[in-house]
Amino acid sequence: MANDWIKESVVYQIYPLSFNDSNDDGIGDINGIKEKLPYLKNLGIDVIWLSPVYQSPMDDNGYDISNYYEINPMFGTKEDLIDLIKETHNQGMKLIMDLVLNHTSDEHVWFKEARKSKDNPYRDYYIWSDTPNDITSVFSGSAWTKEAQTGQYYFHLFSKKQPDLNWQNSALRHEIYQMINDWLDLGIDGFRLDVIDLIGKDVFNKKLSDGPYLETFLKEMYEACFKGRDILTVGEMPGLSLERAAYLTKEEDHLLSMVFQFDHISLDEQPGKGKWALKPLDLLDLKRVFKRQQEVYEKQGWGSLFWSNHDQPRAVSRYGSVNHRVLSSTMLHTLLFFQRGTPYIYQGEELGMTGYRFNLEEFKDIESINYYKEALALGIKEADILKSLHQKSRDNSRTPMQWDDTKNAGFSNGTPWIKVNPNYKEINAANEQQDKNGVYHYIKKLLQLRKEKNVVKEGHFTLLDETSSQIFSYQRKTSNETLVVICNFTNEALTYDLSTYQSYELLLTNQPITNDHCLSPYQAIVYYKENNHGNH
Asked: Which of 235-244, 264-273, 441-450 has the lowest mean pLDDT?
């Protein structure tokens, strides 16, 4: 369960490859992040989450770790990271690191040893079989690859260069706990735990997410690493039910501060057909999911509030409108960030950055490239494959951060590792910070209001206009305060009676209210009032 400072914090995710390049090699780095700390402080950020910067062959952009203790030289040195931790603390912010514990790189010394022979001491750190079952990899194809030296197959739920660790081996677990403690002792303020729902799996009985040993291992990790430390831990758990997620973050056990749940993110997918099979988002589905999340987390546990990350497309291109970029960006964040939970901003969301539609030869992401090959082999038309990739490829949100209108958006003077979105001349931090009516200043104000109003942290959630497929509105209420959020999810003006809220203070709106009986396209309005004492 989250501590009070965690409940009040705003987290900002940095994807280091694409954030800021200090040495002009085209790759973002640790010193580049350090240069931008004042920018993050000014926005109102409390916690920075850093995607992996560990030693890695970069098969999956750093989520394939070959040494947990060392930093990938492309990002800098361990001294640079320690310096970043100190400087982040000096600026009054905290820093959490991304930690991948389900698998390593096949270039990790453990796997290099394990593959040598069946009786190697590290063999049991991974999962082997003579007769692989039919589990498929998230990145396409079988989840088993034959290892030439011993003739056995090793298990990898992701790329074949990402062999899964065998968490049932106690020696492995204790090596991991030692490593976690070493990082925490260096001053890291916690971790985002990548696909942590998979560590308790039983591969041979095909129980992967929320497997039979998950709770046991989380409890053991808490006792060995997290107990007595004032840190933030967020578990990425895409396969967990909402109730289980809330249970694993409940106050009594302290197993995790919060989790990432993805129920709301999969609503533009055809059920059971995976992320590439698209369908339009139905606002009624989104209401149902958010209502349920809010009800469950009010009873126990704590959740996270996010639209985008390094694996998900940018929200404004996915759910909003690029033609109404400022209004739909601000509306989406109003809708989300006044709910109960800890808000997460993915780099560039505060600018209203949009997704970029890559040409086929421009894609870098292993998942996208594998999907293209597999879909083509299945006879899916190239135009349909591209449509899915444009909507859902992980590369869409990985384009470099747009700092200003100079060469390469001010990201690098070198050649960027991935293409810069050409719209950077218009959409960039320098422009946004000068535009009082832009996304940046709106988000900054929104984050400030979240902290000022206790009702955002504690208020009971009630969905309003429940049957409307165009308007998302809700109330948050404590005995002392009432807050009402009204969002037009469409690009049309809608009839709506705002006169009901004449006694309320207008706390926030993304465009002037011109008419008490109308919502402008993508309008977001937040009303607030202090209740008469004792009025429940």
From this structure: 264-273
What does the pLDDT look like over 141-177, one tens digit per residue?
Answer: 899 999 999 999 999 999 999 999 999 999 999 999 9
Q: Which residues are catalytic?
A: 194, 236
- For 68-72, 242-246, 294-298, 320-324, which range has the lowest pLDDT when averaged over its residues? 320-324
How far is residue 57 from each of residues 62, 64, 66, 72, measured CA to CA in Å?
A: 7, 7, 7, 9
Please give the Cα distance from 520 to 488 (Å, whole number): 7
- The string over 499-510, giving b where at least 16 C-beta atoms fall within 10 Å of a residue's C-beta and e elsewhere, is eebeebeebbbb
28-64 pLDDT tens trace: 999 999 999 999 999 999 999 999 999 999 988 899 9
From CA 384, how far away is CA 389, in angstroms rounded?
A: 9
- Amino acid in position 483: L
Instruction: DSSP letter for 381, please.
Output: -
- Full-model pTM: 0.93
Strand partners, 154: 128, 145
Alpha-carbon distance of 191 to 446, in angstroms, equals 26
Q: Which residues pair with 506 in a beta bridge?
A: 527
Pairing of strands 144-146, 153-155: antiparallel
What string of H, E and C letters represents the secondary structure of 427-488? CCHHHHHHCCCCHHHHHHHHHHHHHHCHHHHHCEEEEECCCCCCEEEEEEECCCEEEEEEEE
What is the edge-to-edge ordering of all strands in the sheet holding 524-530? 460-464, 471-477, 481-488, 524-530, 505-509
- Domains of the chain are 4-102+170-356+398-445 (3.20.20.80), 109-155 (3.90.400.10), 460-530 (2.60.40.1180)
> Of 277, 258, 253, which is closest to residue 267 (Cα–Cα)?
277
